[in-house]
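We emphasize that the prediction below concerns an isolated chain of 119 residues; any contacts that depend on oligomerization or on bound cofactors are therefore not represented. The input was used exactly as deposited, without trimming of termini.
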Amino acid sequence: MDDIPHPSAPEATERVHRMDRSHGEATLVELRGDIDLLTAPALADRLDALTAGRRPDVVIDLRAVNFIDCSGLRVLCRVRSRALERRGRLRLISDSPRFLMILRHVRLADVFEIHPGLP
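Result of the prediction step, given as a token string:
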């Protein structure tokens, strides 16, 4: 038997809260909670929409993210690829030593443009 509770999909989706707002010419996406296997698909859909146009300029604020797994990292890689394909830009905001360590371990630290606060 498994004693670990398994949240339903709607509850899991609510763990990541998104707030998009204009920040200069960029779109700022503030994320909160966990980005994991349950929440990543809905987040990917939203970020795909934000990178659908020409020259998307997206800033993702990860400072209030408690946890990110490989599915969350995959979403960030996808957003970056989509932005670059359309001659756009993706910037991440994080001041978390743990998140930066994870990026170094998976050799993504030099791939992303990362800032400790709003650029």
